[in-house]
Amino acid sequence: MERSNRLSSYPLLRFPFLLFLLLSSSAALTAATSENANKGASFSAAEAEAAVSRFQEYLRINTSQPDPDYATAVRFLRAQADALSLESDVFEFAPGKPLLLLRWPGRIPSLHALLLNSHTDVVPAEPLKWVYPPFSAALDPSTGNIYARGSQDMKCVGLQYLEALRRLRAADFAPDRTIYLSFVPDEEIGGNDGAGRFAASEKFQKMKVGVVLDEGLASPGEEYRVFYGERSPWWLVIRARGAPGHGAKLYDGSAMENLMKSVEAVRRFRAAQFDLVKAGVKAEGEVVSVNLVYLKAGTPSPTGFVMNLQPSEAEVGLDIRVPPNADTEALERRIAEEWAPSSRNMTFEFLNKDEYLKGIEIYESIIKAFASYKGDTKDEESRAEL
């Protein structure tokens, strides 16, 4: 369940002032006067309500995978850009997956640009599990919460960018650097056709991007955490095979028996990683998380499944998140030798790992700029855990 609060703790109304301060506090970055800063930082009740209304309108556009309504989202965002006199272009690096790029030209084109990135697609929702319909953007008057899929990941951030620029425009602000806003597609299914192709394009190279701001976690207070790394998703499918047989007999090495041994091995690993988080030894983003997302086996029948037949195949799907300094070679060995050993007639397949391991060079360059970055060395503590 996703919800955002529209009142004092609502990040949509605080982020514009944060970005305003980011831009106006550096002489190298901006040319705003203190009078304009005060003008841009103030919010009337009507302006706040209008910002919330725009947010709700964006949330009501169903851009959930696997069939996101990108066209409607792009039309809405371009209308917002037109109202702010921002330049806009749409690129389709893959058919049916539009990427919207907005541009506010800076006064000094030779300076490196600022890119504010967000994605338009959201994950699916189960309507029956929601208090309000997931694309209603319903506002609960008793709490001020807005309920909608995408309210946190990450339509809130995309609208924060636009509201920030709205305040800057109202303050007659003129940036030295060019400011870009990118609204990319297909992030929730890997991002290869959206951000991946965009970053590799000639257009991106000509933008001369110096700093990128992307998604993070919502902040309920006035302190904003800065993230300098992100875990890579590995979507893993493990398959087991065995001889089929009558349900009344016992067999060694059946598909289900082999698979359940693997599931138990995964459970032990997950528990060990989770214990580190519970004990406060590591943060959640510093461990390898593993979550079982589906089990698949059995022979379908008109009423469900055949109950007296042992299946010849069974599989499990795992969502694995790998931190930047994890020993990926050790993790792959664990998968091959313990979770899906060929000796138990098992195989495994990564659905998207290679795309994430490629990385995007601009993000890597930002990470390496931090003093805490460990270069290409392996994290020995991570190696020991794996």
UniProtKB/TrEMBL annotation:
Report whether Cytoplasm shows up as a keyword of the record: yes
Q: Which residues form the signal peptide?
A: 1-32
- Asked whether the keyword Zinc is assigned, the reply is yes
Query: Could you tell me which NCBIfam families the record lists for this protein?
Result: Ac-peptdase-euk (TIGR01880)
Keywords (A to Z) from UniProt = Cytoplasm, Hydrolase, Metal-binding, Signal, Zinc
Q: What is the protein's given name? A: N-acyl-aliphatic-L-amino acid amidohydrolase
> Which GO BP annotation is one of this protein's?
amino acid metabolic process
- Spell out the GO cellular component terms annotated for this protein, sorted alphabetically and separated by semicolons: cytoplasm
Q: Which residues form the active site?
A: D121, E187
The coenzyme or cofactor needed here is:
Zn(2+)
